[in-house]
C-alpha cells in the first residue's frame, strides 16, 4: 500500500499531471514573462517524465517495439501541433509543415545519431550496431524524404515548390505504404535486424539484467507517456507566440520557428537515445533516430495532404537549394556511417558538424 502511494506521489506521476493542468490553465491566454518561464520549466519536466515512461514501456515490450512506441507517439502529437499552427494561419504557415519535417529529419539523422555515436564511442571506443536494420531504416527515410520533400521542387504541374492534388495524393499513399512495410519488417519479419548488438566490454549495466516491469506498471507508464507528450507539445504550442516573437526579435528568418518546434518535440527521443547509447545500446539509439525521421515524414505528409482539403493557402513542400545540398550530403555521410556496422568518435563528430551547418544556415540562409 505504501509503495503504491509513493508511486502515485513520485515526480514521474506528478509532473505529467501538472503539465496537463498548466496546459489547461494557459491555453488561449496571453502569458507574461514570468508565466512563459514557468511554462517552460513545466515543459522541461514533461520531457524528462516522457523519457522515463518511454524507457519503462521499452523495457517491458523489448526492442524494437519500445523505440517504435516513442517515435509514433511523439510524431502523432507533432502532426497535431503542425496542423493546429497551420489552421491558425499566417503568411508563413504554408511552408511550416516542410520546415518542421525537414528540421525533424536533420535533427534525427545528424543530431540524435551524432550524439549517440559520440557518447557510445567515448565509453566503448568502437561502437557496434546492426548494419542490415539501420541500412533498411536509412533507405526508407531517404525514399520518403525524396518523394515528399525533394520532388515538389522539380515538378511542373503546380507553380513553385508545390504538388498538384494528384501528386500530393500519390506522395501521401506512398508514404503510408512505405512506413507500413518498414514497421512490418522491423517488428515481424526481420525483428532481429533491429536488436542491440553486444559491445565487446566487460562492463555490465545493471539495468540490462533488471527484471522487466509488470504489465500494470507498463500500462500505467504508457498512459503517463501519452499524457506527458500531450503536455509537452501542448505547452510548446502555448509557448509558440513567445517563440515567434523571440525569433523575430533576434532577426532569425520565420522558418526557424519550425526548427524550434522540431527541437522541442524531439527532446524526449534525443534524451532516450543518448541514455541508450551510454549503455552500449546504439542500435536502440539508431532505431529511435531513424524511426523518428521516418514517422515524421510517413505520418505527417498523409495527414497534411488530408488537412489541405479544408486548409486555405498554398502547401509548400519542396526544399530550397541550400536544404537540398544539406539533405544529399547527410544521406551520403549516413550511408558511409551505417554500412560498416561500427563507428568511432569521428563519425559522431561528422554528423554533429552537419547538424551545426544545418542550424547555422537555418539562422543565416
Automatic annotation (TrEMBL):
Signal peptide: none
Pfam families: Na_Ca_ex (PF01699)
One GO CC term on file: plasma membrane
Ranges annotated as spanning the membrane: 7-27, 33-53, 65-88, 100-121, 133-154, 166-184, 217-236, 248-267, 288-311, 317-339, 346-363
A Gene Ontology molecular function term of the record: sodium:proton antiporter activity
Taxonomy, superkingdom: Bacteria
Domain Sodium/calcium exchanger membrane region: start-end pairs: 32-187, 221-362
Subcellular location: Membrane
Keywords recorded for this protein, A-Z: Membrane, Transmembrane, Transmembrane helix
InterPro entries xrefs: Alkaline_pH_Ca-Antiporter, NaCa_Exmemb
Membrane topology: Multi-pass membrane protein
Protein name: Ca2+:H+ antiporter
Amino acid at each position: 500500500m505504501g509503495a503504491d502511494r509513493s508511486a502515485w506521489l513520485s515526480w514521474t506521476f506528478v509532473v505529467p499531471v501538472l503539465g496537463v493542468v498548466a496546459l489547461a490553465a494557459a491555453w488561449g491566454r496571453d502569458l507574461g514573462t514570468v508565466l512563459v518561464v514557468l511554462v517552460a520549466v513545466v515543459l522541461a519536466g514533461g520531457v524528462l517524465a516522457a523519457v522515463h515512461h518511454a524507457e519503462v514501456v521499452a523495457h517491458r515490450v523489448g526492442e524494437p517495439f519500445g523505440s517504435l512506441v516513442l517515435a509514433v507517439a511523439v510524431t502523432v502529437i507533432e502532426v497535431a501541433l503542425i496542423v493546429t499552427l497551420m489552421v491558425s494561419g499566417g503568411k508563413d504557415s504554408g511552408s511550416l509543415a516542410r520546415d518542421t519535417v525537414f528540421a525533424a529529419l536533420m535533427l534525427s539523422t545528424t543530431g540524435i545519431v551524432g550524439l549517440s555515436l559520440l557518447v557510445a564511442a567515448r565509453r566503448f571506443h568502437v561502437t557496434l550496431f546492426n548494419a542490415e536494420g539501420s541500412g533498411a531504416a536509412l533507405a526508407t527515410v531517404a525514399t520518403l524524404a525524396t518523394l515528399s520533400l525533394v520532388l515538389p521542387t522539380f515538378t511542373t504541374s503546380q507553380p513553385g515548390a508545390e504538388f498538384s492534388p494528384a501528386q500530393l495524393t500519390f506522395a501521401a499513399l506512398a508514404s503510408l505504404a512505405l512506413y507500413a512495410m518498414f514497421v512490418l519488417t522491423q517488428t515481424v519479419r526481420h525483428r532481429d535486424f533491429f536488436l542491440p548488438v553486444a559491445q565487446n566490454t566487460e562492463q555490465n549495466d545493471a539495468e540490462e539484467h533488471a527484471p522487466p516491469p509488470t504489465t500494470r506498471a507498463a500500462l500505467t507508464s504508457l498512459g503517463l507517456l501519452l499524457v506527458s507528450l500531450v503536455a509537452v507539445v501542448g505547452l510548446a504550442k502555448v509557448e509558440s507566440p513567445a517563440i515567434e516573437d523571440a525569433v523575430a526579435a533576434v532577426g532569425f528568418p520565420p522558418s526557424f520557428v519550425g526548427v524550434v518546434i522540431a527541437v522541442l518535440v524531439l527532446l524526449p527521443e534525443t534524451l532516450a537515445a543518448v541514455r541508450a547509447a551510454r549503455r552500449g545500446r546504439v542500435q536502440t539509439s539508431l532505431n529511435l533516430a531513424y524511426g523518428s525521421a521516418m514517422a515524421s515524414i510517413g505520418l505527417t505528409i498523409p495527414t497534411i495532404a488530408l488537412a489541405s482539403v479544408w486548409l486555405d493557402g498554398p502547401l509548400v513542400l519542396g526544399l530550397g537549394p541550400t536544404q537540398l545540398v544539406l539533405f544529399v550530403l547527410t544521406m551520403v555521410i549516413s550511408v558511409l556511417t551505417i554500412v560498416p556496422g561500427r563507428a568511432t568518435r569521428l563519425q559522431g563528430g561528422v554528423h554533429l558538424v552537419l547538424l551545426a551547418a544545418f542550424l547555422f544556415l537555418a539562422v543565416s540562409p
